[in-house]
Amino acid sequence: MKKVFYFIGLIGFLSFSNVCFGNDNYLNLDNVVCADNSCEVGGSHFYDVDSLLNYSSNFLGVHYVYGGKTPKGFDCSGFLSYVFKKFNIATPYRAMDYAHFGQKIEEEEVKPGDVICFTGRNSYSSTIGHVGIVTKVENGKITFINAACSSGISYATTTNVYWGPRVLGYRRIF
User: Fold this and answer.
1) Is 174 in a helix, a strand, or coil?
2) In order of start, what are the domains of the chain with their CATH numbers?
3) Cα 87 to Cα 79: distance, rounded to the nearest angstrom
4) Is 63 a catalytic residue?
5) 100 catalytic, yes or no?
6) Choosing from 34, 39, 117, 130, which is the catalytic residue?
7) Angle at 118 between CA 146 and CA 32, to 5 degrees
8) Against a cut of 0.85, is the pTM above it?
9) 31-59 pLDDT tens trace
């Protein structure tokens, strides 16, 4: 009888392994495994990108505070860290550290939940100085949520004359 349960358990594990690790639609970054809009973190639970985006929208209107990491006030990287932490994903506390965090992706690959990276106030800089979370991609227009100095937590687009020229790239972190 034990052999039957071991065999069934082995079949279950192999089936799970094939689903989670044998499919090219899955992205494995450290302890995060994703497919389409659902993710497993550390093998413990699943959530979808919509949950992350809905959670991030709860903070719309919160004021910008340099170095802020709480709903009392956020800066850009503090906002991303706070949102992703809710889903057990640790992210950098400085915007510039996103340069080597996660997987670099091309603009054509961007989807909601990805991180968009910008220069800071100097639009000619090649150093990341600002980050946001992509919320929508439609007809070449990318909408993102971010902590902006002028408007706090708010939505913006890459067609905006301020943000468009400052895009440095995109990172997939889950």
Assistant:
1) coil
2) 49-172 (3.90.1720.10)
3) 13
4) no
5) no
6) 130
7) 70
8) no
9) 455 545 444 444 444 558 999 999 999 99
